[in-house]
Amino acid sequence: MFDPSPQSGPWEPSGPPCKGCRNPIFRDEPRELLRFAAHPEHDLESMNGLYHAECAAPLLSIKRALDMLSRPWG
Fold it and tell me: Which one of 9, 18, 59, 69 is at 20 to 30 Å from 39 when CA atoms are compared?
C-alpha cells in the first residue's frame, strides 16, 4: 500500500494516489481529473478526483452520457 508519510523511505513513490485503483500516479503517467456536478438524486460527487487515464476511461464515458442527457433540448 502507498504510504505518503514523510517517514517513508526513498524507494517510496511520490505521486498522489489514483481515486480508482489507489496506486500512485507518477509524474509521467497519463491522468484525468474527474469533476461530476452536484445532483440532488445521485452522489456522483464522491467520484470526483484524480485518476490514472485508464482507470478514468469508464467513468468518462458515463460522464459524457450524463452531460449529454442534462443538456436542454430544443
Answer: 18
Residue 48: inside a domain: yes
Domain that holds residue 37: 15-74
Side chain identity at residue 26, one-letter code: F
Establish how many alpha carbons lie within 13 A of residue 16's alpha carbon, considering only the half-sphere containing its beta carbon.
Answer: 11
Q: What pTM was estimated for this model as a whole?
A: 0.71
Residue 72 in domain: yes
